[in-house]
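Hey, quick one: can you model this chain's 3D structure?
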Amino acid sequence: MGPIGLYIHIPFCAAHCSYCHFVIDLARGEVQGRYVEAVEMEIEHWGSRLSHPDRRRVDTLYIGGGTPSWIPGSAIEKIIQTVRNCFAVDEGAEITVEVNPDSLDAVKIRHYQEAGINRVSLGVQSFHDEELKRLGRTHHAAEAESAIQQVRQGGFDNISVDLLAGLPGQTVSHWERNFERLAALQPEHVSLYLFDEDEESVLGRKILRQASGPVEKMKPRPGGNLPDEEELRRIYDFALCELDRLGYEQYEISNFARRTNPTNTPRSSLRSRHNLKYWNMEPYLGLGCAAHSFLLPRRWHNENSTEGYIQALFSENDPRREIEEITPARLAEDAFIFGLRQIDGIQYRSLSDLLGREAGTLFRPIINPLLAEGWLIEQGDTLRLAPKTLLVSNEIFGRFLDAVPLET
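Sure thing. Here's the predicted structure for all 408 residues.
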């Protein structure tokens, strides 16, 4: 048993973007203050409830949303201090906050620094104003560039940028500007998500069911002029080539980290350590409304509505919903799906330790045909997606859902 990751959900936003699936709230003022109090109460509850030393030890803390930068920086600092009071936060812990470019200022940056935040994730999505307008974003491309520079000048040396590929009307030539700006701004990490008509993809449902990380496919605005499959493939392949050329390694389907040594060898220390917990089936605790938790042998999510969550905490009721005892079959299913998201794939030996049995014998009726068709690659102790399947990986993952993993 190792240290856990903490996720804290801040649901408040200035507007509801057209593609967003996450639980958000447009409330301001007094509601935000009550919500922060409720989150602090939940932190204190779990700090006293978790008795095992490792379960109270935290090595990643991720504050996501919503838009955490939509509330005062002092509130974020207060939440993090409560975490430090109630949990043993490792000295070298990765502490991330999500921000939107138009809700960031020098005061908030100073609060983030004083709170010990060392990683900032900016929801840029595009460096084209017309695309941002269609998405319902409240910032302009120039604001995004200024925000990245402001965070850098504020002393942060680990910055992540979100981009959306396959937007309505997008072509390869139109897509190039995003990489021109990345080359100039040089963030340490890039998350690249696909904009798609399928608002409830297999992977989207899977991640929303278990984790609080980002979904891979996004909901489009109706009537959008989406790229066809061939153009989307060109856009995606162009992105892979450009990110590699700019010095980023792809370590997961949607995530790229800057290489940190002159030989360009992989395994960058700039990978998102918190999101790796989701993909490696490591324990994490989600706090705040709609946040998901995975602490074997159970997983659950919190009350979805902001007001319902606040009322539960203030009345000393349990905000948890759908508490599930994880069966060996479900654990194996999740371990294979989330493990295969990573470019390095699954290592049977380490997976066997998690599952308590030989992982290499599981799902063979599914794996063997995929190997024969060239969709999966098996080399010694490793199973991974073939490069050609990255864009259609949901179809591969779908074959594992509700399959019988154990040999009889």
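One thing worth noting: The chain is about 40% helix and 20% strand.
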